Each structure stands twice: as C-alpha cells, then as structure tokens.
C-alpha cells in the first residue's frame, strides 16, 4: 500500500510539473517593458543610443568584430544588438538589469565584462527608451520570439 501511495504522489508531481511546463510553452506573447511601438520613445532611445552605446555596440547595432571571442585580457567584445546578436534571447527584465547595473554585477562569479552599468548615467525611462529603439529595429519574427520569451519569463513572477 505504501508503494502505491508513493507512486501516486510521484505521478501527481510529474503531472503537475508537465502542466507547468506546457503552460510556460503556451503562454501568450507579452510585449514586455520596452515601449518599442511608441515612436516618441523610440526616437528618444535612438538619440540616447547614439550618445551612450554606439561607440561600443556600433552605429548600426552591429557590435564589435569577433564578439564571441574573448580578447587577450579575457573580455568579450561588445555584442551586436541587431537580429544577428543575442540581445533578443533575453527577457526585458534581465536586459534592463544588465544595462542598469552592468554585466559583471548581474553574472557575478568573477565574470569579466567591459559593459558598465548605466543606472547612474541614464534614468530607467531613458534605458527603456534605448531598449525600445533596439527592439524596434528587429524583424517582426524576432520581435514575436522576444515577446514569447517575455511571456515565459513573466510566468515565473
């Protein structure tokens, strides 16, 4: 009888976990925090990007050459923010934290990065505008995928 009870509990846990996982995969897309459909915010973000980000990430969001290969000091070059990069692979909350606090502060564990935090330079709304500008340049399918990533991330909140 004890074996049957333990089996039933294990089955219930597995079914619950599977239901949660399916719920994650079926979550409705969520536009997220970045006001990428607001033309005024996007224009402001473009100006702020040119002033604060383009020197490393490129005027056309193209990033630095060989951005996946560490340099002699162990740092990765600035990645692109266009569709060829990986920015859109991360939910808005994580991207906001990286831009606000810097990559080293978010990753921790001695991770080396030249990406400083901009929380002392730009307001949160300004950072959101920069990210809105970046997202506004992505192809429709990348935006849709990013919105799905936001939906999955929001299911954990």
Task: Kindly estimate the percentage of residues that lie in beta strands according to DSSP.
Answer: under 5%
What's the total number of strands? 0
Give the termini distance in whole angstroms. Answer: 39 Å
Uncertain spans:
4-25
**Global Rg:** 20 Å
Could you say which structural class the secondary elements and strand pairing correspond to? mainly alpha
Average pLDDT works out at: 85
Q: What does this entry look like structurally?
A:
With 157 residues, this protein is mostly helical. Helix content is 54%, strand content 0%. The protein is built from seven helices and no strands. The longest helix is centred in the N-terminal third of the chain and has 24 residues, at 2-25. It is globular, with a radius of gyration of 20 Å.
Summarize the structure.
This protein has 157 residues and is mainly alpha-helical.
Give short descriptive properties of this protein.
157 residues; mainly alpha; 7 helices
